[in-house]
Design goal:
It is a single chain. About 60% of the residues lie in helices and about 0% in strands. With about 130 residues, the chain is mainly alpha-helical. The protein has two domains: about 80 residues, Up-down Bundle (Methane Monooxygenase Hydroxylase, Chain G, domain 1), CATH 1.20.58; about 30 residues. Component of the GINS complex. InterPro entries: GINS_bundle-like_dom_sf (IPR036224), GINS_Psf1 (IPR005339). Belongs to the GINS1/PSF1 family. It comes from Hyalella azteca (Amphipod).
């Protein structure tokens, strides 16, 4: 049926536990995108023959509505996956834990002397650098 794969992605998100994200379902996304492409190609073909047969209008509208629904479902799926979900801690506690983890990592680099990863925030202008030994 039209739009089943895209809607199954939304149902998958709805079934996931609060605060957790299901793994990215590449197969269902690919099938939904293929259905969108197929519906679009069918509409293009029918629009080219619209002057010959006015009965094609209903099919064009139906496929266009299914195409739009698939797009909305995919966008909702992608937006849900892109949200950063904090653990049960508050964002400030999460950031404090993140900062201490980064600081601990920077101290572990450079043969025990540490390496400050926040010093050069701008990339170098030259693509090539000279390395001397």
């Amino acid at each position: 049926m039209l739009g089943d794969k895209a809607f199954s992605l939304i149902q998958e998100l709805d079934r996931s536990q609060h605060g957790t994200l299901p793994p990215f379902n590449e197969d269902a996304v690919r099938q939904a995108l293929e259905e969108i492409d197929s519906l679009f190609q069918q509409n293009v073909a029918d629009i080219n023959h619209l002057a010959e047969d006015d009965a094609l209008v209903a099919g064009i509208h139906l496929r266009h509505a299914a195409l739009e629904r698939n797009k909305r479902c995919l966008l909702a799926y992608f937006l849900s996956l892109l949200k950063i979900r904090y653990p049960e801690d508050s964002p400030l506690e999460w950031f404090a834990q993140y900062s201490s983890t980064v600081a601990r990592y920077m101290r572990s680099l450079g043969d025990g002397q540490g390496l400050d990863l926040t010093v050069d925030l701008k990339p170098p202008k030259n693509l090539y650098i000279e390395v001397t030994t």
